[in-house]
Design brief:
alpha+beta, Dimeric_a/b-barrel, 3 helices, Alpha-Beta Plaits, NIPSNAP domain-containing protein, NIPSNAP, 4-stranded antiparallel beta sheet
Length: 108
């Protein structure tokens, strides 16, 4: 098992729209494609326009295959531009892959 840690730095004022896009557009597609989200987080100690979330994968190969399927999914291809009529919602995306330690509660 690996965990993907993704952090989005949102365009100023767009974090609520990013939340809406995940709830209404992204998560239903991910569920159907078998993309497993572990949790979504915003900073508790600062005013920040960022969203961090975790995805669980069996392997990097699974991540690559399912992420590509998501990117070309007709629903996502049709919906994404409609959520960005006033410009991009996200300025930067940082993705890291993590492995649980032998003493982690999230072992494979």
């Amino acid at each position: 098992m690996i965990v993907e840690l993704r952090t989005y730095t949102c365009t100023p004022g767009c974090l609520p729209a990013v939340h809406d896009r995940f709830i209404n557009d992204v998560l239903p597609i991910w569920h159907e494609l078998g993309i497993e989200s572990i949790g979504f987080f915003t900073p508790a100690d600062e005013a920040s326009e960022s969203l961090t979330y975790l995805l669980r994968w069996h392997s990097k190969a699974e991540q690559e295959e399912k992420w590509q399927r998501f990117l070309v999914d007709p629903r996502w291809v049709a919906r994404r531009p409609l959520t960005e009529l006033n410009g991009p919602l996200v300025q930067t995306v940082v993705s890291r892959f993590l492995q649980p330690t032998t003493y982690s509660m999230m072992r494979a």
